[in-house]
Amino acid sequence: MSERLAARWNVLSRCIAAVLGGYALATALPAAIVAIMASGMGGMARSDAVLLAMSLSFVVYTGAVMWAFAARSARAAWLGLGLPALWAGLVAWMLL
Questions:
Q1: How confident is the model at residue 1 (pLDDT cuts 50, 70, 90)?
Q2: Less crowded by CB within 10 Å, the N or C end of the chain?
Q3: Residue 35: how many CB atoms within 10 A of its CB?
Q4: Other CB atoms closer than 10 Å to residue 63's CB: what's the count?
Q5: Which runs of E-coded beta strand occur in the chain?
Q6: Integer angstrom CA distances of residue 77 from 39, 45, 62
Q7: Rg of the Cα atoms in the chain
Q8: Each residue of 63-96: pLDDT tens digit?
Q9: Considering the entire predicted model, what is its pTM?
Q10: Which InterPro entries does the annotation name (predicted)?
């Protein structure tokens, strides 16, 4: 594979990681925040926890897109988005 084609695949992989991984993280993290804040640990009303988490999801998605292109490699971008999304999804699933 030529260097030019490899560079294009790298950019494409990062774009897909930014869109899909960012979406997964921006969905799972607010769910985990709601689960933590609305349970006994946060002491917050469920409606307030949802508003807080959904407001933060825009910041999370923006940060995820920036991370996808700032990471040293496409693999690091995928891992940096996938592992936190998996962790947040597990926390939300266990607490909800």
A1: low
A2: N
A3: 20
A4: 15
A5: none
A6: 32, 35, 14
A7: 16
A8: 999 999 999 999 999 999 999 999 999 999 999 8
A9: 0.88
A10: DUF3649 (IPR022109)
